[in-house]
């Protein structure tokens, strides 16, 4: 028997009292009937009219936007960005939150995730409960730091550049993204039209004048001739082909990479290679990881999910001639960049492949130190168990998703590792995202 389709509730409005912030940046509320609402553009303690954007009768939860604020929280500010708000640009979901309050809310989310998924209080996680701002990002109420050095613009049918709306393919035309770093804004991408183009990726390197622009034309479009306001080191045109949209680089001017500066080294980062988006992030994370691991001469160390070799480089410089560092990275291009970046460090080796496949193949049975910086999904139970079996003195876990971190901390706990220190950094201001560094040691070591 086919069940009746459930009635959509999209467009329905509910007056609600808003509860706590949740993972994902929305706040939790309930309708008078008890249905759970995930409400964006609001703050805990507010009374708002929430309009449903997704969901149907009887669904486990509905998604909604706060469209009228009846009783504003003291931490609410007028959104500095004119393109943000319900149904608008999906990039910055916390434009309406005062800067200090953003960090407090992020701390609440981390606390909740640690408690629920790992059974850890902040004290047990050795965390002071704060989210640290990146140097230079402390802005006044109602201001937004211009931090984003890598930005993917979408282009609408009329050729206007913009950013995608929340959970949508629609484009919000944007003529000045407030979080774009000055180097990105100076490229003038927002000030011109992009006929035939589907997306424009702009990168402004930190510590070098390198700029990269990758254009993806619409399927079947003739490749355009493009001149930008400012000469770029790299202008690449990627071709989207058929449904799979292979990013086939068609034409290249200049170098096929940008050079970033961090941790007193220069890093070659090729197209598609991972690099932190906030200009202060790489330095800050290297410092936090090295402070946590305290490498010694002669140590053997692993840098897992190593990208272009950031932590492997810092470790390689510290373990000296008698030590050794192995980095593992699944992107071929990034692994090649890592080898290039660290060619002066004889004791650093980079393997290309997935950690879960390469690590068992290496035959490594012990390591003094481990740093892992997995993608959003985390490392997972098997990899964590494998890492714990190597008997490292300390493990540093760099995480961009507190939920994945908490899940993996629970696996580490089961495998005999306990937090020694946790730090959280606000590397994505005006959004709900947050970066954490957890340092672990074998249980029973104590301080
Ligand atoms: C968050 S980035 C970290 C990169 C580097 N640690 C840094 O800070 O620049 C995660 C990296 O893991 C790589 N990656 C994703 N899944 C992987 C896997 N299963 N095994 C190895 N590397 C993986 C990605 O290509 C990416 O470079």
Automatic annotation (TrEMBL):
GO terms for biological process: rRNA base methylation. The keyword Glycoprotein does not apply. One of its GO terms (molecular function) is rRNA (uridine-C5-)-methyltransferase activity. Belongs to the class I-like SAM-binding methyltransferase superfamily. RNA M5U methyltransferase family. The active site is at 400 (nucleophile). This is Class I SAM-dependent RNA methyltransferase. CDD domains: AdoMet_MTases. It holds the Pfam family tRNA_U5-meth_tr. Keywords: Methyltransferase, S-adenosyl-L-methionine, Transferase. It comes from Streptomyces botrytidirepellens. Residues 7-68 form the TRAM domain. InterPro entries: NA-bd_OB-fold, SAM-dependent_MTases_sf, TRAM_dom, U5_MeTrfase_fam.
């Amino acid at each position: 028997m086919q069940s009746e389709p459930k009635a959509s509730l999209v467009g329905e409005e509910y007056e609600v009292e808003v509860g706590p912030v949740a993972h994902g940046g929305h706040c939790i509320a309930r309708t008078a009937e008890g249905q759970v609402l995930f409400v964006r553009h609001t703050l805990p303690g507010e009374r708002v009219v929430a309009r449903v954007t997704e969901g149907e009768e009887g669904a486990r939860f509905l998604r909604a936007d706060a469209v009228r604020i009846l009783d504003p929280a003291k931490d609410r500010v007028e959104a500095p960005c004119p393109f943000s708000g319900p149904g608008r640009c999906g990039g910055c979901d916390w434009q309406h939150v005062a800067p200090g309050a953003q960090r407090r809310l992020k701390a609440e989310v981390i606390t909740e995730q640690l408690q629920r998924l790992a059974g850890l209080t902040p004290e047990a996680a050795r965390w002071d409960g704060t989210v640290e701002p990146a140097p230079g990002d402390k802005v006044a109420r109602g201001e937004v730091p211009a931090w984003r050095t890598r930005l993917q613009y979408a282009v609408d049918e009329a050729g206007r550049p913009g950013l995608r709306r929340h959970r949508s393919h629609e484009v919000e035309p944007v003529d000045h993204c407030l979080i774009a770093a000055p180097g990105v804004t100076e490229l003038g991408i927002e000030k011109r039209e992009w006929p035939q183009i589907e997306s424009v990726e702009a990168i402004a390197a930190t510590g070098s004048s390198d700029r990269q622009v990758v254009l993806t034309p619409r399927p079947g479009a003739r490749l355009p001739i493009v001149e930008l306001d400012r000469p770029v080191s790299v202008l690449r045109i990627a071709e989207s082909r058929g449904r799979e949209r292979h990013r086939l680089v068609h034409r290249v001017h200049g170098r096929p990479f940008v050079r970033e500066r961090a941790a007193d080294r220069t890093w070659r980062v090729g197209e598609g290679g991972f690099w932190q988006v906030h200009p202060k992030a790489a330095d800050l994370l290297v410092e936090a990881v090295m402070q946590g691991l305290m490498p010694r001469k002669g140590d053997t160390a692993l840098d897992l999910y190593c990208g272009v070799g950031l932590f492997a480089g810092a470790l390689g410089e510290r373990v000296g001639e008698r030590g050794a560092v192995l980095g593992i990275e699944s992107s071929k291009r990034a692994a090649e960049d890592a080898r290039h970046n660290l060619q002066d460090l004889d004791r650093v080796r980079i393997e290309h492949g997935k950690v879960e496949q390469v690590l068992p193949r290496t035959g490594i049975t012990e390591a003094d130190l481990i740093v892992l910086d997995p993608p959003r999904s985390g490392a997972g139970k098997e990899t964590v168990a494998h890492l714990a079996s190597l008997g490292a003195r300390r493990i540093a876990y760099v995480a961009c998703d507190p939920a994945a971190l908490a899940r993996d901390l629970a696996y580490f706990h089961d495998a005999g590792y306990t937090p020694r220190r946790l730090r959280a950094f606000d590397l994505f201001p005006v959004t709900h995202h947050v970066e954490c560094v957890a340092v672990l040691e074998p249980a029973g070591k104590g301080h």
